[in-house]
């Protein structure tokens, strides 16, 4: 068997499908999914999934486009999807499972073939017939496109080594835990700023984003203009039903972290609006790196931390597995695992799976000390090492000095001998930060600051 007519055929009057709908694909289980394509104007199209054998009919519109909605089930085992018009397409080896979009820049794109820790072992073990990959080819466009370059493939050592390592590790964890198929769509491009991944309307609707995007200077390794990647690499995937999205990006936006604090929430809203789906969006906080200036990393990481205020989001903190000398840290396994833990806990309801390290919540002044309170510290806090490191404290002069920090149950008490009237605390506030505060689940705390000072006062 096989596809009776190749998807995308240009035969006169032939019904055809976008690349994202093909053999070996994963459709979101137990959901209303959209199947769409092209045909001759007025052609009657019948779409039938073998999981329920309920045909759905539609006529191609005056733009030669058609779209139907099917209800999937939770059945296991390969299915077929039949699309019949003047010709018939039979898609085979279709699985029903969990579909996740992976996007961002080079760290999301990074494959085992590019070099990761224990690559040989991970590649050799990558025999998972129920995990499927769809790699979106690099393309740009001036307007939203209808199709992408790519095809669904089964996870094997050969296909895995060219796919997103973080995406694979995430998918493997979810698959092994839920015992269901997982489909992973990787639409990433190294060196790209976030601006290229939003629609033109989403950028132009926000003057801050529009102004920042207009100031981008061309680079040789990829697009920088608004919407260029969105148009060619995201828009054609809509409305393929997703369980959620994963995002690892920000290195190319460290020049304007205050803009990124608006950019990332805008991107999340943009994608959810276009998909008409408030899907979970889990992102990776950048690993520390020796950037040229003084505070690029902590300020960008802070912008990511603030994005947790957007509903149905989560952040994987990875400073403990990063490499300040390599903007592409090779220890990708824990990154994928932490993203998977977020999904298992928050999306799939496994509350026993630790989802996050400590996140600063509030501070209270106690004489010459400050007590810090954290979310995700229900079981307590730990220091990996003899003493807590990289805490700083300041008084009203806004001059931060190294502080003594001690764990007191679920809180941390911070002080310094020379600071009698403390007003603010920072943790891990440098480009090379790697603080050692963790929760009992072994997940690291995000760096933070309790102040919002931009410069020291005139004394």
Automatic annotation (TrEMBL):
It comes from the Bacteria. Keywords: Hydrolase. Residues 98-342 form the Sialate O-acetylesterase domain. The keyword Hydrolase applies. InterPro entries: SASA, SGNH_hydro_sf, SIAE. The keyword Hydrolase applies. GO terms for molecular function: sialate O-acetylesterase activity. One of its GO terms (biological process) is carbohydrate metabolic process. This is Sialate O-acetylesterase.
């Amino acid at each position: 068997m096989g596809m009776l007519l190749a998807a995308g055929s240009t035969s006169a009057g032939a019904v055809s499908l976008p690349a994202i709908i093909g053999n070996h694909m994963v459709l979101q289980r137990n959901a209303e999914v959209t199947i769409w394509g092209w045909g001759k104007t007025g052609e009657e199209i019948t779409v039938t999934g073998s999981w329920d054998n309920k045909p759905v009919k539609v006529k191609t519109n005056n733009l030669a486009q058609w779209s139907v909605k099917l209800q999937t089930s939770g059945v296991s085992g390969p299915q077929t999807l039949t699309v019949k018009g003047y010709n018939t397409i039979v898609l085979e080896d279709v699985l029903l499972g969990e579909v996740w979009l992976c996007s961002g820049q080079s760290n999301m794109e990074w494959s085992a073939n590019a070099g990761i820790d224990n690559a040989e072992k991970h590649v050799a073990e990558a025999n998972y017939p129920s995990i499927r990959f769809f790699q979106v080819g690099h393309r740009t466009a001036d307007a939203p496109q209808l199709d992408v370059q790519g095809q669904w493939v089964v996870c094997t050592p050969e296909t895995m080594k060219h796919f997103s390592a973080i995406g694979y590790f995430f998918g493997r964890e979810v698959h092994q835990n839920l015992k269901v198929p997982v489909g992973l769509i990787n639409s990433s491009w190294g060196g790209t700023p976030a601006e290229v991944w939003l629609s033109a309307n989403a950028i132009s609707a926000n003057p801050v984003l529009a102004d920042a995007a207009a100031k981008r200077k061309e680079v040789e390794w990829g697009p920088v203009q608004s919407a260029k990647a969105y148009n060619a690499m995201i828009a054609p995937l809509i409305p393929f039903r997703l369980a959620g999205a994963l995002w690892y990006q920000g290195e190319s936006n460290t020049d304007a972290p205050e803009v990124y604090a608006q950019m990332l929430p805008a991107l999340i809203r943009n994608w959810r609006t276009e998909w008409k789906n408030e899907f979970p969006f889990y992102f990776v906080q950048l690993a520390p790196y020796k950037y040229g200036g003084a505070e690029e990393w902590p300020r960008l990481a802070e912008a990511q931390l603030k994005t947790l205020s957007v509903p149905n989001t989560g952040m994987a903190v990875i400073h403990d597995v990063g490499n300040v000398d390599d903007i592409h840290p090779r220890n990708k396994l824990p990154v994928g695992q932490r993203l998977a833990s977020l999904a298992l806990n928050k999306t799939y309801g496994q509350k026993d799976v630790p989802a996050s390290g400590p996140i600063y919540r509030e501070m209270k002044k106690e004489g010459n000390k400050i007590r810090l309170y954290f979310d995700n510290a229900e079981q307590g806090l730990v220091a990996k090492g003899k003493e807590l490191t990289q805490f700083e404290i300041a008084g009203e002069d806004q001059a931060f000095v190294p502080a003594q920090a001690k764990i007191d149950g679920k809180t941390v008490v911070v002080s310094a001998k020379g600071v009698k009237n403390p007003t603010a605390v920072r943790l891990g506030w440098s480009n090379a930060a790697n603080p050692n505060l963790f929760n009992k689940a072994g997940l690291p705390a995000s760096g933070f600051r309790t102040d919002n000072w931009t410069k020291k006062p005139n004394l």
